[in-house]
Design a protein that fits this description.
Layout lengths: L3 H7 L11 H9 L3 H10 L12 E2 L6 E12 L6 H11 L4 E6 L7 E3 L1 H9 L2 E6 L2 E2 L2 H6 L4 E3 L1 E2 L8 E6 L3 E3 L2 E3 L4 E5 L2 E5 L4 H23 L4 H6 L5
Parallel strand pairs: 2-3, 3-5, 4-6, 5-7, 6-8
Antiparallel strand pairs: 1-7, 2-9, 2-12, 10-11, 12-13
The protein binds oxaloacetate ion and magnesium ion.
The site of magnesium ion (MG) has 4 residues, from helix 5.
């Protein structure tokens, strides 16, 4: 059994370089929409890049595109040095990041709240995607910080749940997420764009956005769906 490749993939890795700055890449993705990105990933044969559909934005207009900062945790009753551990994680969050929580399917605790929002915003964090819960929801909304999650609860994580590690590969639903991948969430949910193909996916998504303008124009002008497809359109 040779595990070298798998070990390299699953361990902590240097982020590969992107052809344009991360910030520009993410800002340009935010101008597109997740369905266009999804169609491009389908062209690449990647059919399982969307997080489970019950992970939804707190408000329909919330949008985030940023670089994955992954966190893994699970239900855990221990408290010893939990706060210090969480502070250390928060202090490692980088600019243009989005915190992505794999909670091992937790259904009880909030992995995110107001103070964590404030601390991460100071470090340039652009949002949080949590396969779990949020609390202090009103305050988080006031801070204008996009959060995608499954539920809201007043249960703090201390004494109920704790982190196992961070900046490691995680899995939410069927989707692998590596630190540095590009995460894009909007009203249609959250999609994970592998870092190595992110720039190519951006260019193709921008093309789709432009091309769909022409398709919609055909519909407005009264062409039937059959005529639209004959002219190269699609739905
Ligand atoms: O401590 C927590 O569980 C999270 C929280 O309330 C906050 O960040 O404000
Ligand atoms: Mg709080």
């Amino acid at each position: 059994m040779n595990l070298d490749d798998l070990k390299a993939k699953r361990g902590r890795r240097e982020l590969s370089a992107l052809p344009i700055p991360e910030k520009e890449l993410c800002n340009r993705f935010q101008e597109v929409f997740t369905a266009a990105v999804n169609d491009v990933l389908r062209e690449h044969g990647l059919l399982h890049q969307v997080l489970p559909s019950n992970i939804a934005p707190l408000k329909p207009e919330m949008k985030v595109c940023a670089v994955a900062f992954t966190v893994k945790g699970s239900k855990n009753l221990t408290i010893e040095s939990e706060m210090e551990q969480r502070a250390k994680m928060l202090e490692e969050i980088g600019d243009n990041s989005v915190v992505v929580w794999d909670t091992s399917g937790d259904d009880e605790s909030a992995q995110w709240g107001e103070v964590m929002t404030m601390a991460s915003q100071k470090r340039g964090c652009r949002g949080a995607v949590i396969d779990g819960g949020v609390r202090d929801t009103n305050k988080v909304l006031e801070l204008d910080f996009p959060v995608f999650c499954r539920y809201r609860t007043s249960n703090g994580m201390l004494g109920r749940f704790r982190m196992i590690d961070w900046q490691i590969p995680v899995m939410i639903g069927q989707v692998f997420i590596y630190p540095g991948d590009i995460i894009f969430g909007d009203i249609d949910g959250v999609i994970v764009i592998p870092r190595d193909i992110a720039y190519d996916v951006l260019l193709k998504s921008e093309y789709i956005k432009e091309n769909e303008k022409a398709i919609k124009q055909m519909v407005l002008e009264g062409l039937t769906p059959s005529e639209v497809i004959k002219k190269g359109g699609y739905f």
